[in-house]
Amino acid sequence: MKGPLCEECIKSGVLCEECSKKLENKEISELDIEVARLLYKLEKRDLVRGASFERAHLIGNLIVISTKGRVGTLVGKGGRVVRLLSHELNKKVRVVSVSNMKSMLADLISPAKIQGINIVYKPSGEQTKVIISHEDKYKLIAPRETLEKAANLLSDRTIVLEVK
Ligand SMILES: [Zn+2]
Question: Which of 77, 86, 105, 107 could disulfide-link 96, Cβ–Cβ 3.0 to 4.6 Å?
Answer without folding.
Answer: 107
